[in-house]
Structures are given as structure tokens and as C-alpha cells.
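Working notes for the structural subgroup meeting. M.R. asked for a predicted model of this chain before we commit to crystallization trials. I am recording the input and output together here so anyone reviewing the notebook later can reproduce the run.

Input as submitted:
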Amino acid sequence: MAAFMFHSSFFHSLFFLFAYLCIPLELVYIMLKLTTSVERPAHCPCIDYRHTLLLLGSCFATHIGERLEEAKFRCDVNPYGVLYNPLSIATALREMVARKVYTEADLYEHQGLWHSPMHHGDFSAPTHGEALARINGRLAQASDELDRLDFLLLTWGTAWVYEDCKTGRVAGNCHKLPESCFRRRRLSVDEIVADAVSLLSGLVARSNGRLRVVLTISPIRHVRDGLHANQLSKATLLLAAEQVAEAFPDHVFYFPAYELLIDELRDYRFFADDLVHPSLLAVQYVWERFADWCLAPETASVRQECEEIRKALSHRPLRPESEQYKRFLGQIVLKIERLNGKYPYLDFKNEKETCHILLNKSAKS
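Returned structure, recorded in C-alpha cell form:
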């Protein structure tokens, strides 16, 4: 007992010391070896700037997709909005392949908005025409990219699904319809695997064997299902993911995002205020592991320069009308042009427009 009290007091004092010295928490954990490290997967993809990527799934896919976009990788992120269950994600991919065009019959009106049961609420609108324009425009864009796709990143969030009582179809989003409109059930491992294997077999063949898939399980817990039900759901997804990866040993890679947050970080300080979603620090931590394990080493210097440009543009000057700030913006434009000269496939259109807008504002001040 005395030994336990000594160790507790010792570590407690060390944490206060590190906090006083402003040493980052993740570095403290490394120094004290208070975490269980997640091992690097035996087989990892090697993604570089030549590749075209599509990310589908939970909001964790959106987090990683945003960072890939900031680093100027060519990627499309969640063209249906956030989707959580494997069957809805698979349905979205099949609709892209078929180049589906949504019609009014695919929508319904609820609480003053027109919704698609396959899409996130971001696509809902006061009129069916507006909703269809959003849905079909985004779907056509995603379908056009499929033939050039090199990597597909799928993030499964939950094995629980809601089936429409009238149609029997799994809803990607319930849009706050009454629970009585749906049957709730948990997908089985076999059900998920059979559907995923059928889908991926077709996609890999369609790409002449070029397509690679990165499969992850979202670390975000679905607490409204109940904590025990959430654990059963995640276990189902993990077992299914393993079987799918085994079915495609040369094409499917598993990235342990779930394990990194739940096992390696394993602390509520790495979660947001709702204690469910990961904090920005946790997302950054997982992103850095993803970059180390899944991105080609030669992309590191380009990613660093892209990050420097992003940070420079987010700078808010005290005197935007000053010559010094104008020179600062000019240097950003020159850096972008230099990078584009070396890597012409990097898209800096938005950054260039931002620089010119800021320069025009500065000139008028």
C-alpha cells in the first residue's frame, strides 16, 4: 500500500512539473511510458500525390479527409455527407457506379424540408428541386472520379441500422423521423462481409486491379445505442473488417484508428466536451500516425510546405494596409508559384484567390 501511495504521489508530482514546464501531454506519456502503443500494421498502403482518393463514412473520415485536402492530395470526401453503417456506405458506392440520378420519388418531406434517406441533412432543402440539384450535382462529380480512383478509404461507424418499415431499405440518415417509422437491428458479421466482398470484387475488377482500399473503424462511440450495445457494434465491425482484409490481401489494408484512440490515447482529455468525439489533439495524433504509416515518405516535405502556406494565410495582421503585409502576401504567392512549378498537379486555386482578395483590400485601405 505504501509503495502504491509513493508511486501515485511521484507521478502526480511529475505531471505538475511537466505542466509547469509546458511540455505537451503526449510527450509526457512517451517519457513516462504510460501508454500501450498500437503496433504498425504489417501491410500499409503507400499513397502519394499521383493518386486519386475517395473517402466515405463517419465524421472521422471527414476529419482525415480535411487534412488530406489541406495537404493538397486529390481527394473527394463524403459526397453523400456523413454515413455511419457499412450497408449505406456500400449503397452509396453502388449508386456512384450506376451513375444514379435522384428524382422527387427518392425524397420525402418532413418538418418543412425535403430529405433523401441516403444523404446527410446538409443536402436537405425547402424545395425538392433544390435538394435534387445539390444531391445530383455532387453525385455526378463523385461518379466522374470513379474511373480514375486509386484509393478508397472507408470508415465504418456502427453495425446498428434503421430499416424503413415501408420499404425495408436501410436508411443512411433518419432525419428525425419518429422511431416508429423504422426497425432497428444490428448487422451480423457475415452480412457485412458478404456485402463488402461482393462490392469490392466488382470495384477492384472495374479498376483492372489498380484500386486499393483502406478500411478503418471510427473511434467515435455511439452512446445513444447504450455503451454495451456500442461495444457489440464495434466488435462486429472489427471482426468484419478483419475478414474483408483477409479476403483481399493485396488490395485491402486495415488502419487502426479505433485502437489508437481507445487503447493508445485512452484518456478523456483526448475527447471533446461531449466525451464522445475525439478532441482536435486526438484527431491530429491519429492523422500523424496515418501520415507516417500510409503516406509515401517523399510527400512529407510537400505536406510541410502546404501547411506553412495554410498557416500564413490564417495570419491576422495588426495593420493590413501596411507595405510589410503586402510584401508578406506577395511572398506567399511566390511560394505557391514555386511549388506549382515543381508540382503542377497541386491545386492552389483557392489560396491564390485569397491572396489576391487580401492584396486588393490592402491596396484600398
